[in-house]
Amino acid sequence: MRQIYVLDTVRGARRLYNDAVRWHHMATEKAKKRLLIISFWERHGMGATVDAFAVSRRTLYRWKANLKKARGHVDGLNERSTAPVSRRKRVYPPGFLEKVVELRRVHDRTGKKKLATLLHVSESYAGRALFDLRKRGLLPDNTRLSLHARTGLLTPLRYKKRPRIRRKIKRGVEVDTIIRFVDGIKRYVYTAIDVEKKFALTSRRSSPSPPATRTTAHDPRRTSSQSSALSLRSTSPRCRPTTEASSPLSSRTHARRSASRTSIRTPVLPR
Fold it and tell me: Is residue 270 part of a domain?
């Protein structure tokens, strides 16, 4: 009878087998140290081992039993998990989980904060209930699906949370409005502030659509002396516009126009 090894026909299978065997009996540094302590115990006795390594007799016998159970492999001395075999389970009041499932069926985005308010429990208690229901697969699946027009496949839509962009230098305009009643008339007061240039603008209107009746601008960086100088400059005679009455040239032009407009009436004599 001819025997054919499958591992020889597959390329790289023997190397994978050797690696699996080697990793299966992988020994840690702590396991090697325990093996050294056991060999020291067999050579020099129990008293010298306890004094040299500060290990109890019960621990030495337990390590030796684990090594014997692993048939002499060093990986039998590796550390094992210390988690309890039987763990306690949460017990909820009767009908509590059914209420949570019903609320999530109506509003699929209800979180633990709102559930804690509606069910009169703590926020952490509602969060643990949601975790247990999700782990057991009892929460309703309200995932939105997207239909591909060409292939007809349904793919779940994933929510993408956009990152918030926080600029180091604030830019833009901050606008706010308030409503005041003055003498029985409704007034709209608008305030706009340029964040970068620190320029403020205030406008008062009797309605939202007509143009502003009064507009005042205020720059916080301008001092009172600069504001008074600006007002004096605007009221000085040099800055005043020239009218027709004050200008001699304009008075001559006005006289000519009035003369051309004046007509002389002659009396009509009877025939």
Answer: no
Structural domains counted in the chain? 3
Say if CB 143 and CB 156 are below 8 A apart.
yes
Give per-residue pLDDT as tens, 155-176.
888 777 788 777 777 778 888 8
The pTM assigned to this predicted structure is 0.37
Q: Which amino acid is at 149?
A: A
Q: How far apart are CA 124 and CA 113, in angstroms?
A: 9
Enumerate the β-bridge partners of residue 201.
192, 217
The partner residues of 147 in beta bridges, in order of sequence, read: 154
Structure tokens at 139: 């929460």
> Are residues 101 and 72 part of one domain?
no
Token pair for 175:
């606008």
pLDDT digits (tens, 9 = 90+) for 120-155: 999 999 999 999 999 998 988 777 888 888 888 988
Residues 6+ apart with CB under 8 A from 268: none
For the chain, the C-alpha Rg in angstroms (whole number) is 47
Nearest alpha-carbon partner for 213 in 238, 195, 241, 187: 187
